[in-house]
Known about the structure:
Structural class: alpha+beta
CATH topology: Aminopeptidase
Shape: globular
Strand order of the largest sheet: 1-2-3-4-5-7-6
Largest sheet: 7 strands, mixed
Number of strands: 7
Bound molecules: coenzyme A
CATH architecture: 3-Layer(aba) Sandwich
Number of domains: 1
Amino acid sequence: MQLVHADPASIERVLQIDLGAGPHAWPESALRRALNAGELLLAITDVATVGFLVSQPVLDETTLMHLAVAREYQRQGWGRQMMQGWLAQQRLSGQQRLLLEVRRSNQAAISLYRSLGFDTLGQRRGYYVSTDGVEDALVMALDLGLEGSAYR
Length: 152
Ligand SMILES: CC(C)(COP(=O)(O)OP(=O)(O)OC[C@H]1O[C@@H](n2cnc3c(N)ncnc32)[C@H](O)[C@@H]1OP(=O)(O)O)[C@@H](O)C(=O)NCCC(=O)NCCS
């Protein structure tokens, strides 16, 4: 599997993956903005685009904004491989810290992030809109442990 920058031709597949992956797909406009900003990466195998992620660097921290694996490819290890590939890219770029927010109810994603070493820093109450009101976000972080962070 390779993680590559998305090109404009891939937006339809990204939208299709996101709508099928779970109940909280991004609006098309947000995905197009990520594409145009160079923040959208595709996970490509020999046979298909199995997923995508969006991440945003600010100085030496990068925030994972979105991650989705196509419904038909879920629970086959692709989400883990995507995250491991992304972590390797971030390390190579010298990033010091990775951050993300995740819905408290999203046990699949939380369990994936924990297994990769992310710790919970705290929560943002009522951060997400949900079908029955609002939902808290967990804020998670992984310190890549390199020297010289701009924040130290
Ligand atoms: C979260 C998501 C990316 C995981 O992708 P995936 O390819 O299915 O995950 P993997 O097969 O690589 O599994 C990796 C780990 O995730 C966790 N996991 C994945 N699906 C799970 C599920 N349905 N229930 C519980 N844990 C789950 C497990 O810890 C799993 O490790 P294990 O196989 O050793 O138990 C995928 O479910 C998805 O696209 N969900 C919808 C979008 C979303 O919620 N994105 C996260 C936004 S923060």
